[in-house]
Amino acid sequence: MNLTLKVWRQKNSQEKGQLETYQVKNISTDSSFLEMMDILNEQLVNEGKEPVAFDHDCREGICGMCSLFINGEAHGPGEEITTCQLHMREFKDGETIHIEPWRAKAFPVIKDLVVDRGAFDRIMSAGGFISVNTSGNTQDANAIPVPKEDADMAMDAATCIGCGACVATCKNASAMLFVSAKVSQFALLPQGKVEAAERAQNMVSQMDEEGFGNCTNTGACEVECPKGISIENIARMNREYLSSSFK
Ligand code: SF4
Ligand code: FES
């Protein structure tokens, strides 16, 4: 396939960015989207130009690093896949593809298509963990029965990879889907209930501090989430937050 790429180029967070146009030729339909980006970068390096900066790590849909807004969609076309799982067969020969970074005040652009998602790390540090007694008297996890339904819901919430597509997709740049998945994965299990009230309060207050917008229930986050995280988690987090406000 021969393609025209309109790629967001931005030197750093201070300078203004713009879309630059590039042509790539003879791209295999079997290539992944990131392999196509590698080919573009090889071409740019051979021409003595600066390659496009973009985030990636596992390239297997696990780490949450890849983060491209492709033709106006977080992680591009296709349901429940990350950018690294997207293949060029989803595009047509001769097509023009627009490639942009996540856009949100709380995710400032570092360079080109790379944004700073440190806000998510700070939210996790505020409460995305359980404290365990490591004195040697730790209770065996198997000694605490967990209903199958709760275990399944907790596991579903825990599949969130922290990619930030929910924020990039939301017109308010809300992080509620991410935070609610993290609150839920613990709130549903007995081990997480001990610090549940504190966790909901601390994670929500850190989320607000980071400058994410409010949730207005459009549901766009759920549609674009590569892991199919349900907005039911947002309702659960709201309940957790409200009940913890009275404790
Ligand atoms: S909720 Fe979905 S879209 Fe949001 S960070 Fe987690 S995996 Fe990514
Ligand atoms: S590179 Fe790890 S999820 Fe895409």
Characterize the structure shown:
The chain is α+β, with helices and mostly antiparallel strands and 247 residues long. It has 2 domains: 3-110, Beta-grasp domain (Ubiquitin-like (UB roll), Roll), CATH 3.10.20; 117-244, Orthogonal Bundle (Fumarate Reductase Iron-sulfur Protein, Chain B, domain 2), CATH 1.10.1060. It has 9 helices and 7 strands, in the order E-E-H-E-E-E-E-E-H-H-H-H-H-H-H-H. It has helices at residues 33-46, 118-127, 148-158, 165-169, 176-187, 190-193, 196-209, 220-224, 232-245, and strands spanning 3-9, 18-24, 69-70, 73-74, 96-100, 109-111, 114-115. The longest helix has 14 residues, at 33-46. The model has no long low-confidence stretch (mean pLDDT 96). Iron/sulfur cluster (SF4) binds next to helix 4 and helix 5. FE2/S2 (inorganic) cluster binds next to loops.
CATH class of the largest domain: Mainly Alpha
> Which ligands accompany this protein?
iron/sulfur cluster, FE2/S2 (inorganic) cluster
Number of domains: 2
What spatial order of strands do you see in the largest sheet? 2-1-5-3-4
The CATH architecture category of the largest domain equals Orthogonal Bundle
Biggest beta sheet summary: 5 strands, mixed
CATH topology of the largest domain: Fumarate Reductase Iron-sulfur Protein, Chain B, domain 2
Give me the Rg, rounded.
Answer: 20 Å
Distance between the termini: 60 Å
Q: Which structural class fits the helix and strand makeup?
A: alpha+beta
The DSSP helix count reads: 9
Low-confidence stretches: none
Share of helical residues: 25-40%
Strand elements, count: 7
Percent strand equals: 5-15%
